[in-house]
Write a structure and sequence with these properties.
Layout (H helix, E strand, L loop, with lengths): L14 H13 L8 H13 L5 H11 L9 H13 L7 H8 L10 E6 L29 H6 L4 H14 L6 E7 L8 H16 L6 H8 L5 E9 L6 H10 L3 E7 L3 H6 L6 H13 L3 E6 L8 H13 L7 E4 L4 E2 L3 H7 L8 H12 L7 E4 L9 E3 L6 H11 L7 H4 L12 E8 L3 E9 L5 E10 L15 E9 L1 H4 L14 H15 L4 E4 L6 H6 L3 E2 L4 E4 L1
Parallel strand pairs: 1-2, 2-3, 3-4, 4-5, 5-6, 6-8, 13-14
Antiparallel strand pairs: 7-9, 10-11, 11-12, 12-13, 14-16, 15-16
Bound molecules: iron/sulfur cluster (SF4).
Length: 556
């Protein structure tokens, strides 16, 4: 850890009381003695209901169970049912439990995202906008969604994963495919043994057994009931070296979130990011050449920026081949008490954008996002009471979408085109191929789209350029084309699937892989690699890939 870090603990008024209130509301189970009659009435109604749907169940819960202090949720109702049947207050009926949990539903991507937070630790960054609260990872605030859940488990990775799995199951979500997302400060600044133990314990929780080493835990997960089909870690560009890239891959990571915030060296310096655009470009290049999916964070309204300079900055993401990310989060800078930016605002050096300025900026950003990028967020969900001044709107994306619709403009990003829960007719799908250059690769974004341009499946293929420096590539990947991502959406997964829902060779994923192999062969590559998650190794074995050291490869 960096000993020069300046600690700025924030003293929010009534911070502790607010956290305690939040915990009581969200984390306290229902008192089954106090609500006994209400709960029995609910279970009777659930048993008797015909055609029980998710919305019908929710309205029954809202109508029959009231608590002024504790938040009544479906998983607390399931827990109450289990507790009451265990105490013989009523007989256990599997059918009632199934109805309370609803029938399993998949997210539109077929994958359950599971976020885990690392423990509090200093960050090497000194960014002037970044809050620090004692006992929490740098930049995270106690009342942010998910943070209290992690704190409740003392940031223990095993307990966090088990609790989320239980909650998914109580809410009727499928849990066979899990995408792990590790947040909290800068991953690369944590001690290596902390990182290794953290990842191993997440896998242990998915596996339901404890393993003696990370490798054994990963092996075990290949056939576990809850498989990790992705692992995302979050770090800073100036921490990315070839060794770090190798280590991230060894841990099992498939996607890296990089906070770049601005593509302007002057703004980076003003905001004391402690990194330059040269650091960013190098980090992105190393990660892309290693096949990682790249998820960047960009922050408008930094000190020194204006809405117009932000528009110019955003355009660099696509115009400069060194960036061109696969996924993006726009986090407009939030002004938070206790930060250096707050002091600059008090001195009159800084002005947060108004709601209308931010909405227009997001509209202009969204209209320029290319079809190969997924715009995941346009606002960070910071509770309004932390924001000292400026926009507190949490519905910025909806507001921007409304404006785009009124102006007859469609956002082309992946998120806005995903098929979600619509039915797809296989014969209406067409294969699209979009090629674009980066500073080290030619990228092929292959996709199956409907006649309405909705996205049913896609694949990212990277062909390293002959001019890419071999010193920036992992030995294992030299002379390989690389599949960086294969994604088939929930409903599309049914096309060519067997009765278990597992994709067969005739499925969309398989057809995309075959197409990628052809492109690689035509471009003169002899081998193709895939950055497989631990839980997708079996899938790629079916397609002729074998595990080498850190990647799966096959000849073309
Ligand atoms: S790098 Fe991220 S966590 Fe660290 S100080 Fe900067 S914004 Fe905060």
């Amino acid at each position: 850890m960096n000993s020069k870090i300046v600690s700025r603990n924030i003293h929010f008024k009534e911070q502790d009381e607010r956290v305690a209130r939040w915990q009581k509301k969200h984390l306290t189970p229902l008192d089954i003695d106090m609500h006994r009659d209400e709960l029995l009435a609910l279970f009777d109604a659930v048993r008797a209901a015909r055609d029980l749907s998710s919305s019908k169940l929710n309205s029954l819960i809202m109508r029959l169970v009231h608590d002024d202090v504790v938040h009544v949720t479906q998983d607390k109702i399931v827990a109450a049912y289990r507790a009451m049947t265990a105490r013989d207050i009523l007989p256990f009926e599997r059918e009632v439990l199934n109805r309370l949990r609803l029938k399993p539903v998949r997210t539109s991507s077929g994958v359950a995202p599971l976020t885990v937070l690392t423990a509090a630790a200093p960050c090497p960054g000194k960014c002037i906008f970044c809050p620090e609260v004692s006992g929490y990872p740098k930049s995270y605030l106690p009342l942010e969604p998910g943070v209290q859940r992690a704190a409740q488990h003392r940031f223990d990775p095993f307990k966090q994963v088990r609790a989320r799995l239980q909650s998914f199951e109580n809410n009727g979500h499928a849990t066979d495919k899990i995408e792990l997302l590790v947040l909290g400060g800068t991953w690369s600044a944590y001690a290596p043994n902390y990182q290794e133990r953290f990842v191993r314990r997440m896998f242990d929780a998915l596996n339901g057994v404890e393993s003696e080493s990370l490798e054994l835990a990963q092996q075990c997960n290949e056939t576990a009931e809850h498989r990790a089909v992705g692992l995302t870690l979050e770090t800073r560009p100036d921490h990315i070296t070839l060794d770090e890239v190798k280590r991230l891959r060894w841990l099992g990571a498939t996607k890296i979130q990089l906070g770049i915030q601005s593509l302007d060296d002057h703004i980076l310096e003003l905001n004391r990011r402690g990194e330059t655009t040269a650091d960013q470009k190098r980090a992105i290049r190393l990660l892309r050449l290693a096949g990682f999916k790249l998820h960047l964070h960009w922050m408008p309204n930094l000190l020194g920026a204006t809405p117009e300079s932000d528009r110019t900055d955003f355009a660099r993401l696509w115009n400069d081949p060194a960036y061109r990310p696969d996924e993006l989060k726009i986090y407009p800078c939030g002004l938070i008490e206790g930060t250096e930016l707050f002091t600059r605002w008090q001195a009159g050096d800084y002005r947060p954008y108004r709601d209308d300025e931010l909405t227009e900026l997001i509209v202009d950003c969204k209209r320029t996002v290319p079809p190969y990028c997924r715009l995941n967020r346009v606002i960070r969900d910071i509770p309004a009471n932390y924001i000292a001044a400026g926009s507190t709107r949490s519905d910025l994306r909806l507001a921007a979408q409304r404006v785009l619709r009124e102006r007859g403009i469609a956002c082309q990003c992946i998120r806005c085109r995903e098929v979600r829960h619509e039915k797809i007719a296989p014969d209406e799908l067409r294969l699209d191929s979009l090629a674009y250059e980066t500073d080290a690769t030619t990228e092929h974004f292959l996709s199956f789209v409907t006649s309405r341009n909705q996205l049913a499946a896609f694949l990212r293929l990277s062909l390293p350029s002959p001019h890419a420096s071999r010193d920036e590539m992992l030995d294992e990947l030299r002379d390989c084309a690389i599949i960086r991502e294969v994604h088939v959406y929930g409903n599309a997964l049914e096309i060519g699937s067997d009765s278990d829902g597992a994709a067969q060779h005739s499925g969309l994923g398989a057809r995309l892989i075959e197409h990628a192999i052809r492109i690689a062969r035509d471009a003169g590559f002899k081998r193709i690699a895939v950055i497989s998650a631990i839980g997708t190794r079996a899938y790629y074995r079916k397609h002729g890939f074998e595990l080498d050291e850190l990647y799966m490869t096959r000849s073309v």
